[in-house]
Amino acid sequence: MKESWTKNPTDITVGSAAVGLEFTPEGKTALVTSGGMGTGKGRVSSIDVKSRTSHITNISVGAFPFGLAITPNGKTLIVANNDSGTVSTIDLKTKAKHRTDIPVGRAPGGVAITLDGKTAFVSNNGLPPLHWRR
């Protein structure tokens, strides 16, 4: 069976250099990282999947946010800030970023969270080692 895809005629604006995309567990919201390399600014945009509209509030994070992951319970978003060497944690209910980012080494890119939600693994783009936090 061949699948066919069509482009929605309306693009959704989220900012420059959109890289990471993750859906909340219930599938109602898409979260997108954006903010170009070298700008010193990054953000996470929240998009309503059904209406295909971006929420007004963007969440400021570290420089050049890249990968992101949501805890299995859907409560916390973790964002790898490539240019900052940190990860940001965001409470998805309140859309508030924890005030202190966690240092994880140079150029963090990917984030994965264990099924129990207790440990996050962060890969560094082309650089060892793999970092983990509880």
What's this entry about, in short?
The chain is an all-beta fold and 134 residues long. The protein is built from no helices and 13 strands. It has strands at 21-23, 29-34, 42-48, 53-54, 59-61, 65-70, 76-81, 86-91, 96-97, 102-103, 108-113, 120-124, 127-133.
What's the CATH architecture? 7 Propeller
Main beta sheet: 5 strands, antiparallel
Distance between the termini: 44 Å
The name CATH uses for the topology is Methylamine Dehydrogenase, Chain H
At the first level of CATH, the class is: Mainly Beta
Overall mean pLDDT: 87
Query: What's the order of the H and E elements?
Result: EEEEEEEEEEEEE
Ranges where pLDDT stays below 50 over 5 or more residues in a row are: none
Individual helix count: 0
CATH-level-4 superfamily name: YVTN repeat-like/Quinoprotein amine dehydrogenase
Shape designation: globular
Sheet/helix structural class: mainly beta
Q: Tell me the fraction of residues in β-strands, as a range.
A: over 45%
Assembly type of the shown chains? single chain
The radius of gyration is 15 Å
Helix proportion range: under 10%
β-strand number: 13
Overall tally of domains:
1
